[in-house]
Amino acid sequence: MTQQLTDLADHLDATDPLAHVRDRFLLPEGVVYLDGNSLGPLPAAVPPVLEDVVHRQWGTDLIRSWNTHDWWQAPLRVGDAIGALIGAAPGQTVAGDSTSVQLFTALSAAAELRPDRPLLVTDPEHFPTDRYLADSVGRLHGRQVRRVAPADLPEFLDEHGDQVAVISYSPVDFRSGELHDVAALTRAAHRVGALALWDLCHAAGAMPVHLDDLGVDFAVGCGYKFLSGGPGAPAFLYAAERHHDSWRTPLSGWTGHAEPFGLQADYVPAPGIARARIGTPPILSLLALEAALTAFDGVDLAQVRAKSLSLTGFFLRCAEELLAPEGFEAVTPAEPEIRASQVSLRHPHAYGLIQALAAQGVVADMRAPDILRFGVNALCTSHHDVLTAATLLQRITSAGDYDPVPQEPGTVT
Amino acid sequence: MTQQLTDLADHLDATDPLAHVRDRFLLPEGVVYLDGNSLGPLPAAVPPVLEDVVHRQWGTDLIRSWNTHDWWQAPLRVGDAIGALIGAAPGQTVAGDSTSVQLFTALSAAAELRPDRPLLVTDPEHFPTDRYLADSVGRLHGRQVRRVAPADLPEFLDEHGDQVAVISYSPVDFRSGELHDVAALTRAAHRVGALALWDLCHAAGAMPVHLDDLGVDFAVGCGYKFLSGGPGAPAFLYAAERHHDSWRTPLSGWTGHAEPFGLQADYVPAPGIARARIGTPPILSLLALEAALTAFDGVDLAQVRAKSLSLTGFFLRCAEELLAPEGFEAVTPAEPEIRASQVSLRHPHAYGLIQALAAQGVVADMRAPDILRFGVNALCTSHHDVLTAATLLQRITSAGDYDPVPQEPGTVT
């Protein structure tokens, strides 16, 4: 049985059109890294760029680098590079700040574009920061937040749609890896005159996203998961061009001013997406992200999606053959149309098992109370990585070679 | 006359107790850098730390570094390191985000601590982002913003003090380099029950600041000027401990939650300053800032202040002897008590002169329309640097060796 799986992994890796892209990452020896959906691995392009940014740009050229190395335009330049990965034509995406800050901006802007609608609607299972920021924006803008499961959203909108300013959801359930239907939910929102905001943290770089084509209004996402921009890499914000004349941002920092160096008395927002710039951006982290994005050069996101599905499909097969007998239950959907770039397995000793895997060089993470979560990144994960992880997990579990301690949350999504 | 100045520079540099600290910076050959109040130079401690952070921490240890290299506590750890430079006992300062975002947090929190007071008061000559954010917070919290010059503030508070929620000022006029009286204005605010917020961008690391002793309520500042943390280095926020039970932050990101890994449904703010954490911080930029702060190890801020005054005093003397005859007017006060760590000179061809200086290796900046601004950093500027700049400026001006083009704003404060 395992020989069959080995042969299959051999075949799938040998015919993988993205196999060569793995060399664009500096993966540590002896580690199978299946946590790129928390923190992407180090792209080989990053260290030489950072070396240049630190020594030549900052150290030698000093303040002049804002112009000579065009630090000034980096938030828009990097934004456009991310835009190319999420179906956004240039001029609609800015990079900077954190996802939380970008969520605050997008939700505030959306609320102000629908001033007479009292409801902000979000997912009860949304990543916490999305829920917390929705509550905060609701409070500051005098709106109420309703938490409605994606499956119930169309019905909710049928009933209360004229009260809804914006729906705020993610394409990916970060626990289960189930995909929600961005197209259908965006349409449902628009049918009732609401706006649609999508959090792409677990989607950007992992699959094609078609923001422009789907008519999405706002989107946000982080730079450190599938974009591999480094720990805490700047986030991004997309605002559809049709809102550019009318949207208002709450964080009216000087770099988003129409004349940032004019030192004017009053805030006049820059045209377009530039008004979502806030303060001076963290250039080291931002230019590391820019370098990291070159790992996508010449890579077709349809290929990324195909390989991601191949990896997760293979993982699910390994899980069925090797892990189901050990008491693991696959949480991630088998249907490829609704499967994101991760495999989540349920086991009561998730925490101890993830620790035992890590001790033997397979890095994944867990979500309380009982989910083992394995992210695959089509740019640098192989089918053999998947097989190694599944085989080791089977061996550890069957041997009882782990500490069945109570789960303890502890890492960063 | 110039020989006298040279002898004086020799003497002052030879007897400078901070002379050895200059070696903690990697200053480029052939450059006199007097723009550290826009972007501090590269501390020697930064490159090896970044190398380690990128290759070993991110590249090799990957996601585990949140724990094993304690990335998680970095915002609080770096915050305390900055706190030590601004008179803040530990546990009151957090590092992260940009000054603009921190201003938004501090102003919002202050407004909510004084719910019945309709006025936010700020400086009409404040750095633009401070004014813009005050307007935005006023709008979102239903308050009015009044712009009152520091000199008029005591009288304004006598008349309208019971209406004032918070005063928001900087100790330093970023154009002229004049110091405002933090102690007196904070007292004046407190006398009428208002809170005091100080923007320390041009003060932190340049002079002693006594936040705790003066009873300041909130303070913010950037990491990239006198703290030399690198381009766009994370900013900081100070909130006095006495507010920690009651303050509320608008940007309720997950990292500021009491149980950030608990994935709870509702936001419960962390105790203390930690609730001012927002999203995942840009670790590369944040740890570069942390390394940069080691340039202050063993350095007494009273010595920093004494040397800064020696440098600016010497600059003013050079200006009087060499530059006044060429039509330059000193804008920075001669009185040391009210002089910050810069010298600003007025000349109608400020822009062209700053360009001509830069072409010959003396880097300073200008503020529209007619201010040449020279920052001195006591950690790495020498009296000979000052003399070189003044002598070159005298030579360029008397020879007419510059382009008398109209001023054109263009660099970052």
TrEMBL record, chains A, B:
Its EC number is 3.7.1.3. Pfam families: KYNU_C. Its cofactor is pyridoxal 5'-phosphate. The keyword Hydrolase applies. The modification N6-(pyridoxal phosphate)lysine is found at K225. Pyridoxal 5'-phosphate binds at T99, S100, F127, P128, T129, D130, D199, H202, Y224, W254, T280. It is an enzyme of class 3 (hydrolase). Keywords: Hydrolase, Pyridine nucleotide biosynthesis, Pyridoxal phosphate. One of its GO terms (cellular component) is cytoplasm. It comes from the Bacteria. It catalyses: L-kynurenine + H2O = anthranilate + L-alanine + H(+); 3-hydroxy-L-kynurenine + H2O = 3-hydroxyanthranilate + L-alanine + H(+). PANTHER family: KYNURENINASE (PTHR14084:SF0). NCBIfam families: kynureninase (TIGR01814). Catalyzes the cleavage of L-kynurenine (L-Kyn) and L-3-hydroxykynurenine (L-3OHKyn) into anthranilic acid (AA) and 3-hydroxyanthranilic acid (3-OHAA), respectively. Belongs to the kynureninase family. Homodimer. This is Kynureninase. It comes from Saccharopolyspora terrae. The gene is kynU.
